[in-house]
Amino acid sequence: YTIMRGIKKRIQVGRNEKKATLVFPEGEHPKIIKAAALLKEESIAEPILLGNPSLIETQCQHLGLLSAFQ
C-alpha cells in the first residue's frame, strides 16, 4: 500500500473539481481491486479495471467489494 499512498497523495494535491480517472491493467488482482475500491469509495478517482469482467466480478464478490463498483 506504500505505492497506493503515493498515488493517493499526488491525486489529492493535483485534484481540481473533476475526478481523476485511473486505469489499472491488472484489474483481476485482489490488491488492485482493493486499491480501486478505496479510490472510488473516498471519491479520489474513478478507477477502470482491465481484465476478464467475470473474473473481476468474482474477485469482488470474494473480497466483499462488489457494491463498491455498482
Explain what the structure shows.
With 70 residues, the chain is an alpha+beta fold. It is 51% helix and 14% strand. It is built from 3 helices and 2 strands. It has helices at 2-14, 30-41, 53-63, and strands at 20-24, 45-49. The protein has a two-stranded parallel ribbon. The longest helix is centred in the first third of the chain and has 13 residues, at 2-14. It is globular. The model has no long low-confidence stretch (mean pLDDT 84).
Secondary structure: elements and pairs:
Blueprint: H1 2-14, E1 20-24, H2 30-41, E2 45-49, H3 53-63
Parallel strand pairs: 1-2
* Percent in helix: 40-55%
Unreliable stretches (pLDDT < 50, length at least 5) are none
Euclidean distance between termini CA atoms? 24 Å
Radius of gyration: 12 Å
* Percentage of β-strand residues: 5-15%
Q: Looking at the structure, what is the overall shape?
A: globular
Keywords:
2 strands; 51% helix; 70 residues; alpha+beta; 3 helices
Could you give a quick summary of the protein structure above?
By secondary structure, the chain is an alpha+beta fold. The protein has helices at residues 2-14, 30-41, 53-63, and strands at residues 20-24, 45-49.
